[in-house]
Structures are given as structure tokens and as C-alpha cells.
Amino acid sequence: MQQGLISIAARTVITHLVNHLGHYPMSGGPAMLTSQICENQDNPYSECPELSTELFESPNLQFFVLNNTTLLSSLQIRAEDNIPGGGMSAGLTTTSSTVRIIVRDISGKYSWDSAILYGPPHCSQPSQPLRFLEPQPRQDEPGDEEALQEDGGEAQEEDVEILEEEDSEEEEGLKDFMAPLAKRRCREAVPSWDSLRDDEDALDEMLQYLGTTSPECLQRAGVPLNTPPPPPGCVSEKQENDVINAILKQHTEEKDFAERRNNDLNMRAMEQEEPAPQMPQSAFYYCRLLLNILGMNSWEKRSSFHLLKKNEKLLRELKNLDSRQCRETHKIAVFYVAEGQEDKHSILSNTSGSQAYEDFVSGLGWEVNLTNHCGFMGGLQRNKSTGLTTPYFATSTVEVMFHVSTRMPPDSDDSLTKKLRHLGNDEVHIVWSEHSRDYRRGIIPTEFGDVLIVIYPMKNHMYSIQITKKPEVPFFGPLFDGAIVDEKVLPTLVRATAINASRALKSLIPLFQNFYEERARYLETIVQHHLEPTTFEDYAAQVFCPAPFHHLPADAGSCPESQQGEGPAAQADGSDSALPMSPRASKSRMSMKLRRSSGSANKT
């Protein structure tokens, strides 16, 4: 057994259980096990339809390696707006940018979009001032006075409860903004500066409010708090009047001073405004923030989190890694032999079969459209040259593409040759034969077809199975040669037998690697060749700025740097300024100018 194969298989099982157990297939369909998103999609700094070197110049993209087993790509893109339901943020207050994390590991490729959620939608609106509920006067009917006198406080409590029920809807939107005292229903409201008249005193009104709403604060029962106390015995009436007149005079002078200086800017306090939101200038800010929240920028993670070298070879290997399958794949040929057909041309020319045959084919898998199928193709083409649809079967661990002879067009000899090329190259052949004679291997001449599973219809919806294989092929099941199967379980058992036969044939290939082993080895090779060992300072600099910032392609025309001068002189100056100049070259150029100036002076 190869070194480390057990640990790789264990990692594959763990990732499969975590990623796919209980939620396969997802909304993408059974053909999509992993993500089809790449770094160039939705990237405002990339216009190429595939991975290209211009991604290395994007200031919003960086490549990482986690634990030497997982490749991470962190990309900052624009958030989607005007989507029903609010899109990814579900209508909550968020930012204008989204962070996309693309993960490539042993189980496949996955893409996650994340955004900062600040809170409910009203958080983005300006704060509203606090408002207090004003008391609503009650108008009692004349006939209720006697009832009020008889019932006393009980009637008042009932009226207060009725008013509370009527105002509950109006108060519901203000409960979060009201002060605790304002939420209480009282006979009088808290005196505010706007509600006071000129002849009313704020302190007097506040004392009256406290005495009314909190009777326990009264010094003497029945005496309001705003009742002025008697003057002390040591102060005469004349002295008291003098103090009152002095206070009134001071009040009048202050009022006159305020009216005269009301328009003076130096006497006014500056209004404090709410600061406006600041948009981050860095195109990688939110990616850096997410990495920091996840703890990837810490010193402790330096041994397990690294950068990747940016070069063309990395892009080629990423493309190759994305093209590799993340599941076990098989391609199986299906033939239909009608009554009396014993040659290749007649069998390959069939475009349909009996109803029992069509029911059997539909039970092998579900029909997929080859033009937009995103799963395993098995060598079939999307240009309709190999048919429009074909049966396809998939689970979270295996994909099977059936090459059905009656689904491929037999329009010409060239089409028959192409059909034979696809069907004959398959190592497992399923033959539905309605001919009275047994099917012979040499009818379809091919070097492959190591396993033949021939189905013969019988009476009472029963079918006889004949399995022919080469001697070196190991045993497989569940069907065996000579088995008789009922119609209901025939497609399932034949499909399982064909898959196991394909696995048995692959086990004979020298140095054969399973899909998970091959993907793990390839990931290990990418990490070994492209991991960039850096110091913590260099790593922090690359995370802070993945690439020199430049304007978006749409804004490039407005950049001052992109505007070139007109005329030969401007071009010459531009060419000189574009070239780097060393100190020695600058000195020699200055000496040349001095010589020219001295020579011209001598001539004059």
C-alpha cells in the first residue's frame, strides 16, 4: 500500500461526511457537487473570461495556503443591490462590498460570500429626537359626574386603562425612543422648555409636576412643593424686596445683552453634526478585516497560513485542478439489438427501441441536456454532434454517463464512425438483445468491451442476464451469469453491476490512483512548488496591499496619469520622464547642457 494512502482516504471520508451527508443534492442539482465560480468572475479589475495573469494586478485579490492542504482565494467584490428580499444581506444594514472566499481542498472547490451586517434597516437612518407623550384631556359626559363621585378612584383607573388601550398603537413605534418617565401615564407631563410660556418658571413647574406625580416627596401633606416658604425672621421685607429687584434687574440686563448679540457668530455654539460614513480607500479592506476576525493575521497562525507565489504556472495548475473530477466517474455503453440484427451497421443505425427497452434505459438514470450539462460528460460533445440528451446518474461519490446507441444520431457514415468511437471505447457494454440468437462479442469490433452484460427478455416480465468477461477481470456483482431478474429491479441491478465491473477493470491498471488520491497529490504538488515563505512583516504588507492600486477600467480615462500631451515636444518630454534616470546619467546630462551653453556663449 502506498505511503499515506490511509490518511488521505480518512481525510476524504471526513470531508465527505461534513460537506455532503444529509444535504445532497443541493439547489445546484446532482451534477454540481462543487462550485463553478472562479476568481475572474464578478471581479471589476478583470475582463478576461478565464483565469489570466491580469488577476495578479488586481488589488482586491490574494491567494493563500492553509495547513498545506487547502488553497484559499480572498476576493473583494461589489455587493448586489436592488434584489428582492435584500439579497445576501436580507435587507439588513450592510456595506457596499462583499468578500468572496474560494476554497479548494481534497473534496472539491467551494465559494462563500460574506458581508458585514450592522443591524436592522433603521440603523442606517438618522437618529430621531426623543419625544414625550402629551396628556390627552378626557371629556366626561354630564351624566357621569355622579358615577365618578360614587366610584371614586376605580372609575379613574378604568378610564386610564381605556386610554392606554387606545394609544397602544400610537405608542408602539415610540417605546424604544421614550424616556422612562415619559412612558408612565400621569395627570400632567414633564415640563419642557418649548411648552413653557414667558410668565412660567421652569423650576416652579417642575416642582409642581413632582408633587403631583410623586406625593411621597411632599414635605407636608397637601402642601405643593412649589409653594414659597415664609421669609426667615432675620430678613426684613425691605431686604427681601431689594434682593428680588436685583435679581429681576440682572435678568433684564442678560436678556437685553442676549437680544443685542443674538446675531453675533462668536456668541453662538457650533452645531455638532453626525459624521458621515467613510468609505474604505483600500480595495482589499474587507478581506483583510475578515481574515483578521478569523485569526489568520495573528502571529500564532504564521506556521499554517502562507501566501502563494503569483505566476503563470500557478494559474495553469489551478485550471488543471478545477478540471479534475471530485467524484468517481464511469462511462458505460448501451446497445439495442432488434430482432434479426446481427451486423454492426444495422445495430448502430437504430434510433429507438421497444417500449420495454425505453423503460429500462429511463431506469438507468435521468435524462440530461448535453448542451448545458455541468457534470461529467464522458467524452460526449455539447455541440449536438453526439446527441441532445443521454441518461446520467450521480451520487455524492460517483458519476455515471451512459453512451446510449439510440440517442446518438446515425445520419451518415461519419456519424456511425463517431458513434462507434464513443461506444467502442467503453470497457463495459450493456446489450439489450431481442434477437432469437445469442449476442456475439465480435458483432461490434473493438479492442475494449472487456465486460459484456447482455439482457434477454423472457415471459412474465422476467429477464435473463448473461455476463461475459475476460479471464483477468476479477469478480464483481451483484448480478452473475445466468441470473433471472424481475423487471422492477432490473435497471438498478444492472447499473450497480456495470459500476462494479468498471471498478474491477480500473483496478487492473498499473499505478492507478483513485480520484481523491490523485487530487490530494496534485494539491500537495501545488503547495510545494508555489508556497512563498515570508517573514511576518512581508506577509502583513502583502495582506495590506496585494497589488499596487489602480483605477477601474471604466475610470481609467479620467486619470491624470493617462492623459498624454499632444505634439512632438510633449511626446519627447513624456518619453524622457517615463524612463528611470540614475544619478550618474543625470550628472552627465547636466554637463552636456553646460558644455552646450558655454559653446554658444563663445560663438556669440
From TrEMBL:
Protein name per its UniProtKB record: RGPA1 protein
Chain segments carrying region Disordered: 125-174, 555-604
GO cellular component, one term: nucleus
Biological process per Gene Ontology, one example term: regulation of small GTPase mediated signal transduction
Biased composition (Acidic residues): 142-173
Residue ranges of every copy of the Rap-GAP domain listed in the record: 318-526
Residue stretches of biased makeup (Basic residues): 586-596
InterPro entries per the UniProt record, alphabetical: Rap/Ran-GAP_sf (IPR035974), Rap/Ran_GAP_dom (IPR000331), Tuberin/Ral-act_asu (IPR027107)
Keyword annotations of the record: GTPase activation
Gene3D superfamilies: Rap/Ran-GAP
GO molecular function terms listed in the Swiss-Prot or TrEMBL record: GTPase activator activity
One Pfam assignment: Rap_GAP
SUPFAM superfamilies: Rap/Ran-GAP
Gene field: Ralgapa1_0
